[in-house]
Structure formats: C-alpha cells, structure tokens
Amino acid sequence: MNYPSKVLERAVEEISHLPGIGKRTALRLVLHMLNRPVSQTENLANALNHLVQDIQYCEKCHTISDAHICQICANPLRDSSVICVVEDVRDVMAIENTGQFKGVYHVLGGRISPMDGIGPGQLQIESLLKRIENESVGELIFALSSTMEGDTTAFYLYKVLKDFNVNFSTIARGIGVGDELEYADEATLVRSIQNRIPYVESTLKG
Amino acid sequence: MNYPSKVLERAVEEISHLPGIGKRTALRLVLHMLNRPVSQTENLANALNHLVQDIQYCEKCHTISDAHICQICANPLRDSSVICVVEDVRDVMAIENTGQFKGVYHVLGGRISPMDGIGPGQLQIESLLKRIENESVGELIFALSSTMEGDTTAFYLYKVLKDFNVNFSTIARGIGVGDELEYADEATLVRSIQNRIPYVESTLKG
C-alpha cells in the first residue's frame, strides 16, 4: 500500500506488528485515533510506556503485579500450602474471577513447546522447585492447557517434583457445564467417561 | 475483570477504547507487548504520539499529508481539472493503488449521516465550493459509499454545486469483476441492468 504520509505509515506499521492486526485494521485504528481528541491517543501512548517500564512480576509466583509481592501472595487469608500452577496471568485472572480458589499461584510464563523453541529453562520451574523446598506445600494443582504442550509441561513438572512430599492434582477435563453431549469432541468425551466421579459427590459439588 | 496490576489495567483500558477491540483482545495484546522487547512497545507509543501531534492535512484536498500540500495536489502531472470526491483517506489510497486515476481528490472527511449527527457543516464542502469557484474544474466524480448516507451526500453536493459549469459523474455500481451473478444482491443487480453500457465499449475498457 502507498501511504500519503510517513507519520501515518509508521503508526500503521507499528500497530500491525501486534498479533492478529493486519495493515487494514491498523489503518482503521489509526484513522479512528485521528478522529478522536488528541489527548485520548496520548493517554494510550502513555499507558503503553508505563506498561513496559513500570510493570513488575511477583517475586514469589511471577504473576504481573504492582509490587514485589503480589496481592494474592501477600494475603494471609490465602492458603499458601496449595499452589495452582498456571501458564500465564490470564489464567490467574480467570480462576480469581470464580472467587472459589483460596490457595496461591505459580505462573510458569508459558508451556514447554519445542515447536516454538520454548524449553523448561525458559519457564519459572527453578523457582517452583525452590518454593516446594522452602515452603510447606501440601498440594500442587496443574491448571495447564489441555494440549500436547500443556500435558508435556505437567508431565515434566511431575517428573522433576515427584520426590517431594507433595500431592499432585490436575484440573478436571470433561464436558463443560451447560454443554450438550453430542457437540463435545471425542477426546473430551473419552476423558469425561474415564474420569467419571460418583454421582452423589458430583451433585453436591454442583 | 479483576486485574492484578493497575499498570496492566490502565493499558488494557486504553487499548479497549479502540473500535472492535474488547477487554479480552486488549489483554492479549498487552501480554504480547510484555513478552517482546521493551523498545518495540516504546516505538509504538512514539509512533502514536507523532501521529496525533505531527499529522497534517493537505490544504487543498484535505487528505492526510506530511506537508501543507499533499504529493498528489503538488504533482504537476496530475490533471487538476478532474476532482474525485471521496469520504476519507482510505478511499484515496484504494484508488491510488489502482494507478489508473490521473486526476486529483477532495476528501470530505465523512458522509452526511443524521443518525451519527454528521451534517454538511462537518464535512469539507465549503472548501470544495471554493475549489470549483477558483480552479478550472471540468469534472467532479463522486466516489462515495453505495449506502443511504453516501447517496445523500452525493445528492447534497449535486444540489449545492449544480449551477457551476462542471460535469458530474459517479463511479459505476454493478457486479464486481470476478463475481458470480447468482450471489449478487438484488439492488446491485437492478443497478447493473439499469446502468448497462454498450457491449463494445465495455470490452474495450476491460
């Protein structure tokens, strides 16, 4: 595309580096910015600068935080003996939104994926090991993606940590609440039958 | 959603003000920014600041430009007696990309749309009037959206300008090149029949 202005082109170029945003969408966004008050776009630019300059990660669980220790790790009411291992901060937010989990987290920062060149060394596994060594951890819950990479990551962690006196669990896989059986994929259906639970227990939990 | 960090929340908030980007997508973009080199996001922020601070509009045709007069208006090889009236800079770019139009443009900056509170006063109509008064304009091509608002805008312009010694034309509406007739909508099909052109002329142009 030929842009009538270098300033315009550069803005489109930078925006289109973001995932899922092509040149056309970027141009649409840029024109929107030109049609709204200048201050709004300045606020956006400021927020992005602040983001990359001021963001911190919790020293304990590695979630995004405004302090050295995140609000969850710093909360004495949370049960620090139960650690939920997740891939990224979105998973923490999703679980926190349910309001039902009272333990703490450990954010790996991704999952083992040889295809993407991500090995165990790039994930926060060393620090998880240290937490289990130094804190009195009773249970480790794997809340990882139900994909090859997620399963590989869980298996790797289990192998590394299995000699510690810790119970390992993984979140249940099965038919989603409200989902119809006939639309479930085969693998999920198989898992939901294999991992069936006593009826009475299930209804009490629901 | 509960965000674990104010810095994160503010960035998500600002990004989600953009059209077509919800909170979830904004969060995905923000996490992407945190996983790439800081300089890339700083470049983006800089580009946005430059955009809103340094952008200029051509004094003649009102397209986005890096100078007072845009490259097209300043080009002596362009035929300034033929003005193509468009809604915004994307239309200019689309037509320029064809490389077939040798005239100049006039960017209205939108279309008359009472529903969105946009009247003729908010569009660059006054300056189009001045161009026709002062320059020797032979033809005015309406290249506006084929919508109620686009048609209204063309009709309004025609009413305002019809006493000048200028030929008015509008871009052809019809079945797109490569499109199948059976999938065309009714209105387009009707227009394509009503505005049929002699066969020989059409094949020569093609």
Automatic annotation (TrEMBL), chains A, B:
Give the GO biological process terms: DNA recombination; DNA repair
Q: Which CDD domains match?
A: TOPRIM_recR
Q: Which InterPro entries match?
A: DNA_Rcmb_RecR, Rcmb_RecR, Rcmb_RecR_Znf, TOPRIM_dom, TOPRIM_RecR
Toprim domain residues:
81-176
Zinc finger, C4-type: residue spans?
58-73
| Function comment | May play a role in DNA repair. It seems to be involved in an RecBC-independent recombinational process of DNA repair. It may act with RecF and RecO.
**PANTHER family recorded:** RECOMBINATION PROTEIN RECR (PTHR30446)
- Official protein name in the record: Recombination protein RecR
Q: Which organism is it from?
A: Moheibacter lacus
Gene (name only): recR
